[in-house]
Amino acid sequence: MIPASRPLYLFSDFVLSPKRRLLLRNGEEVPLIPRYFDLLVLLVERRGQAVHRREIFDAVWSDVVVSEGALSQAVRTLRRALGDDSRDPVFIRTVSRHGYRFVFPDVSEQSDSEPPRSGAAEPARPVAAAAAADPFAAPLEQLLTAGPLDTEERREAAELLHALGTEEALGRLDRRPGHARARALLRDTRWDVAGAGPVPLIGQSELIATLGFLLSLRVRRTLRVAGSRWVSAAAGGALAGLVAGTTGGLLLRFGPGSTAAEPVPVILGLLGLAVGGLGAAGVGAGLAAAEVLVRSFRAMALVLFGALGGGAVGAAAHLVALWMIQGLFGRDLSPIAGGFEGLVLGGAAGLGYALTTPREGGGMAAPHGRERAVAALVTGLCCGAAAVVLASTGSYLGAMSLDFMAHAFPGSQVGLAPLARLLGEEEPGRHTSAVISGGEGLLFGSGLVLGLTRRPRSAVS
């Protein structure tokens, strides 16, 4: 967050006001999306210094996880706004294998309470497209030419078309060969240009082809960006499962009337680790994919993708467990937790995560400190409430599935009667089921989000 006490910065034809969050050129506002504005302020404040990419990510994208390409895209946009040229920069120079430096030599500071004085005498170079007879022609040709879709040159052309006028660009694209690819890229880049207009898809020709290109763009980004999030989410769920299993095992071992052997806490801890990790892998994959693939309806996508991820992994685990148990012991244990329970818990996790991590402009949420704790707690409460509802309707979650299996195999030491006695019931009933299932859901949702929101260290050296 930019403190309000910072001064105005004057350079060339520009006035930069961090306090009012304005960039003016000859008195006219130059629109920038908030993160790009913050990046410009950072570079101007550190002018003359080479600012490392890791420092930029930590300062400008501190609450989200984005790909390295997001920084390149931001710098392209700033250069276009300033009329700069990456091949012979006047303002922003790339420092190879390090980051970026603001190199304009004459930057003056002034109190933001005074009327701004004129900037430096040397004017910025005009944007190349502005001098062209038809500024739309070259970027349109770039988008419509066959070749790889998601290149820096094509994204820059799409961003320039948004800056020139989204509606005009779409009108010129209409029904030309290659327009489906071009429309998909314009749709994907509209979030990165301040003032870009809408890029509708419904009702357009070649809708299926356009959706296919758009999905391809975002799936590649998902694979690049979301992998580490998925692993962290699975690890968070596994840790929560380990805690739940070990705690439950200790209560069974030392609860009233227990016959459980000494290894039970360890075995249940390992079982919880596997089940929690598997469940969180499915739900976490859905949530990570939703954050990258869908930008217009993020909350809805998180609920839907979380439910689909949880349901898919729950159904798969249920089928494998039934196949193994029936094959080895000839018992039908169909009531144990499966796809429906995973669907409900995954949707609840997506709801809690969406409520506590509202995002605009893309990127995967990475709250920290108190905000991260709140996100984990609220998501845990949503999952806990969903688990209680499932238990009240007769569905079996982790511990209750284990109790069901214990009754199917006489002599088992993992029945939940000792836990039920601690909760005032002789045998596991509705109260025991609600308390245990709610606790499992709380731990699962909290562990999942703590893992999912873990901010990875930048790979940039």
**SSE ordering:** EEEEHEHEHEEEHHHHHHHHHEHHHH
The backbone outline, from C-alpha atoms, is elongated
Number of helices: 16
Strand content: 5-15%
Question: How many discrete domains?
Answer: 3
| Class inferred from helices and paired strands | alpha+beta
- Biggest beta sheet attributes: 5 strands, antiparallel
Distance between the termini: 26 Å
Estimate the mean pLDDT confidence: 83
How much helix, percentage-wise, in residues?
A: 55-70%
Radius of gyration: 28 Å
Overall number of strands: 10
Instruction: List segments where confidence is low: pLDDT < 50 over at least 5 consecutive residues.
Output: 118-132
Explain what the structure shows:
The protein has 461 residues and is of the alpha+beta class. The chain folds into 3 domains: 8-110, Arc Repressor Mutant, subunit A; 128-223, no CATH class; 226-452, no CATH class. Helices cover 59% and strands 7% of the residues. It is built from 16 helices and 10 strands. The protein has helices at residues 34-45, 53-60, 68-82, 128-131, 137-144, 152-173, 179-189, 207-225, 227-254, 264-293, 298-329, 339-356, 370-392, 398-408, 417-422, 430-452, and strands spanning 8-11, 14-17, 22-25, 28-29, 51-52, 64-65, 92-95, 99-102, 107-110, 364-365. The strands form 3 sheets. The chain has a 5-stranded antiparallel beta sheet with strand order 4-3-2-1-9, with helices on one face. A 3-stranded antiparallel beta sheet has the order 5-8-7. Strands 6-10 form a two-stranded antiparallel sheet. Helix 9 (227-254) runs antiparallel to helix 16 (430-452) and helix 10 (264-293) packs across helix 12. It is elongated, with a radius of gyration of 28 Å. It starts with 7 loop residues before the first strand and ends in a 9-residue tail after the last helix. The model is unreliable at 118-132 (pLDDT under 50).
